[in-house]
Specification:
The structure is a single chain. This protein is of the alpha+beta class and 367 residues long. The chain has two domains: 169 residues, no CATH class; 155 residues, no CATH class. The chain is 49% helix and 19% strand. It has a six-stranded mixed β-barrel. The chain has a two-stranded antiparallel sheet with strand order 2-11. A hairpin with a 5-residue loop joins strand 3 and strand 4. Helix 9 packs antiparallel against helix 10. The chain starts with a helix and ends with a helix. Its main location: membrane. It is a multi-pass membrane protein. The complex is composed of two ATP-binding proteins (HrtA), two transmembrane proteins (HrtB) and a solute-binding protein. Keywords: Cell membrane, Membrane, Transmembrane, Transmembrane helix, Transport.
Length: 367
């Protein structure tokens, strides 16, 4: 490290420029990662936060929750010893007209038992009563368009009026805030259910161990299918495509970072060939020089990653309100470690060059 630190101090401008590039690449990685997670949460946080392991849906629905209609009677058939809990879940998209205002808001309606396993955690107010009509719990994002506790809204299609009795948070589906209500209310406003039995529901959410998946799947009647939570997430419109695109961008950023670092440090090593030759002639072995190069790269990378993390959180302060961005500490640590690995890989070409330097040839060139 002594040689590495002396070199960094001696060539400040050179390493400042390299550091600037590492900071920019790392900053881009963290920002795109935050956007990817933010979009993921904005598209599917209601399913991600749901206390369910599997979902039973109509087989012909192509795994789309809004196309699935099954019978609640199936709950009795799911009383297998392997199933811990099962509960009905209704879903539909809706347009709300705020009473006393011209404001229209696109939302996702989720219907479930207000005291069951799927009920959202109420952060303000109370949960809805399963025996009362016209009560709803809304995601807090509706406050941004003027809703508050006690406000009423009208479903545009059915004309039914509901009152917000509580607010929850981090409940979004298909980039729309979720409004929870009881199953009876959902059946009244869902036009698709007109030609179906009165006890219809979109899906059954199930809590059970993964080892019992095949047993439950075989016990299900014809016409329904069992989806894991991950399969349910992948079936949300646009979710898979969004995440694939952003993941590909992040992967390419890591490749670009490795390539840029490899080229920079290789060119620097070429410029210092004679100095490395002289050091070898004075007794410095290849391992010592290799440790110096790797130490230099890792020291530079650590400093630059810390700066880029600080800049990333600084950038979030000036991001427009409502922009989906979520960067958890565990994700920052994960990508920081990956960037360190990429930096170490970028120094391999330089190590190979140093190992090939012949002291006599280098001294000859110097003389």
């Amino acid at each position: 490290m002594f040689l590495a630190i002396r070199e960094l101090k001696h060539s400040k401008l050179r390493y400042l420029l390299i550091g600037l590039i590492i900071v920019l690449v790392a900053l881009l990685v963290f920002i795109i990662s935050g956007l990817a997670n933010g979009l993921s949460s904005d598209n599917a946080s209601s399913i991600q936060n749901m206390k369910a392991d599997y979902f039973v849906m109509e087989h012909d629905s192509k795994n789309k929750l809004n196309r699935s209609i099954i019978s609640m009677d199936m709950l009795e058939e799911l009383r297998e010893p392997e199933v811990q809990t099962a509960e009905g879940l209704g879903q539909m998209m809706a347009t709300l007209n705020k009473i006393g205002s011209n404001e229209k808001t696109e939302v996702t309606i989720f219907a479930t038992n207000g005291r069951g396993i799927l009920a959202p955690e109420v952060m303000e107010g109370t949960s809805y009563d399963d025996k009362k009509q016209g009560e709803a719990v809304a995601d807090r994002s509706l406050k941004e368009v003027g809703y508050k506790l006690g406000d009423s809204f009208q479903d545009e299609l059915s004309g039914k009026v509901f009152t917000i009795v509580g607010f929850t948070e981090n409940q979004s589906y298909s980039h729309a805030p979720v409004v929870y209500m009881n199953v009876a209310g959902w059946r009244e406003i869902n036009p698709v259910l007109k030609n179906h039995a009165k006890n219809s529901i979109s899906a059954l959410a199930v809590q059970m161990d993964a080892k019992d998946e095949e047993t439950i799947r075989e016990a299900l009647p014809d016409g329904v299918t069992l989806l894991s939570k991950d399969e349910m997430l992948q079936s949300i419109p646009g979710f898979k495509e969004e995440q694939a695109t952003l993941t590909m961008m992040i992967a390419f950023l890591f490749v670009i970072a490795a390539f840029v670092l490899a080229v920079f440090f290789y060119v620097i090593t070429l410029q210092k060939t004679n100095q490395f030759g002289v050091l070898k002639a004075l007794g410095a072995n290849t391992v010592y020089l290799a440790k110096s190069i790797v130490g230099q790269v890792m020291l530079l990378a650590v400093v630059c990653i810390v700066i880029s993390v600080a800049l990333t959180y600084g950038v979030t302060l000036i991001m427009p309100e409502g922009m989906p961005f979520e960067l958890r500490p565990d994700l920052v640590i994960k990508y920081s470690l990956l960037l360190l690995v990429v930096s170490a890989l970028g120094s391999i070409l330089s190590l190979y060059r140093v190992a090939k330097i012949d002291a006599l040839d280098a001294i000859g060139r110097v003389s």
